[in-house]
Specification:
The chain is of the alpha/beta class and about 260 residues long. It has a single domain, classed as Spore Coat Polysaccharide Biosynthesis Protein SpsA, Chain A. The protein has a five-stranded mixed beta sheet. It has a three-stranded antiparallel beta sheet with strand order 5-10-11. Strands 6-9-7 form a three-stranded mixed beta sheet. Helix 3 links the parallel strand 2 and strand 3.
Length: about 260
């Protein structure tokens, strides 16, 4: 049986730390930890990594009490937090903290704490047919061939996958006309994921890029890496996650 790790990406005490952020984390914890029996049954270990605190006692009680004892927790508060400069670098910081654990697994399921998992369809699909799986963060709806080009199974450098059209050469990565991968929830072949982690320099990520017209976005970086490096991958139509688009308003909700 394949060995899979579910990595819960957490940054509890970020610069946006407030009561609403805690509420969002509580909802997120409840949505993911209710499936612990399912994860155990399907050989999926769970690890939570947070680089904003050094001790479990620094975690708000509302969140700490929800974490099952079987969850492996890695905490390390860094004196220099790359995430304060560029959120992409902050995520890679977490990934590098987990590298020694990650290398013992065949696949990684990445889940950003603050998302609400509406169901586990994508994970059940993965168990039935193990493959790297991703969803779109933004989608251009005015392209007639969108359903043909962007969903389904693809191979590395697949000519059916319109990488340039979807933003590789876009100078302004925040332009919503272009498509990028959603990085809150995805599944990736571990050996390829570790190559991405090992070959990414955090000091490069915190410097503006001429190619992207600013800091490199995680969504676009992951999209380009998957297209050029993964042997095969699947684009799914729905991730079935809810995201609060603001740390300060519980009414601003996006569904993917």
């Amino acid at each position: 049986m394949l060995k899979t790790i579910l990595h819960i990406d957490s940054c509890i005490k970020s610069k946006d730390y407030n009561t609403l952020r805690i509420q969002q984390y509580v909802e997120s914890c409840n949505s993911i930890f209710k499936y612990m029996d399912f994860f155990k049954k399907n050989n999926i270990d769970v690890v939570l990594i947070d680089n904003s605190i050094s001790l479990i006692d620094e975690m708000p009680n509302e969140i700490r009490c929800l974490i099952p004892t079987s969850v492996n927790i890695i905490l390390k508060k860094n004196d220099f937090n790359y995430g304060y400069i560029n959120k992409t670098a902050g995520v890679f910081e977490h990934w590098k903290l987990g590298r020694e654990i990650f290398k013992n697994y065949d696949y990684i399921i990445h889940f950003e704490l603050r998302l609400t998992l509406l169901n586990i369809d994508i994970i059940e699909d993965f168990i039935q047919n193990p493959i790297s799986m991703f969803g779109w963060h933004t989608r251009r709806q005015n392209i007639k061939t969108i359903e043909i080009n962007e969903l389904g199974f693809f191979k590395k450098n697949d000519t059916r996958f319109k990488i340039n059209e979807y933003g590789k050469d876009n100078r302004n990565y925040r332009d919503k006309k272009f498509n990028d991968f959603h990085t809150g929830l995805f599944i990736c072949l571990m050996n390829e994921f570790i190559k991405l982690v090992d070959n990414t320099d955090l000091n490069i990520l915190i410097k503006p890029s001429l190619q992207f017209g600013g800091m490199i976005s995680l969504e676009k970086l992951l999209m380009c890496y998957v297209y050029y490096c993964l042997p095969e991958f699947k684009m799914v139509e729905k991730l079935n996650i809810k995201r609060y688009s603001s740390y300060y308003n519980m009414n601003n909700i996006e569904i993917y």
